[in-house]
Amino acid sequence: ENNAMLYKLKVVTAICEAHRIKKLSWFFQSPDLNPIENLWDEMKEAIHKKSPVPSNLKELKNM
């Protein structure tokens, strides 16, 4: 299976080079590639605005 992936990578790389297609180097966790991360950040912020993180056990129990 890994050999197949390596073969595919080589084929795709050769095609890109032949057609002068430049690859962009983005990180896998980049919000640009993973838009759900932006949504999670917005949701977390909205939740924390409505109910701040409890600072002690009593506040946690009262949530």
From TrEMBL:
GO terms for molecular function: nucleic acid binding. This is 14931_t:CDS:1. InterPro entries: RNaseH_sf, Tc1-like_DDE_dom. Coiled coil: none annotated. It comes from Acaulospora morrowiae. Residues 3-54 form the Tc1-like transposase DDE domain. Pfam families: DDE_3.
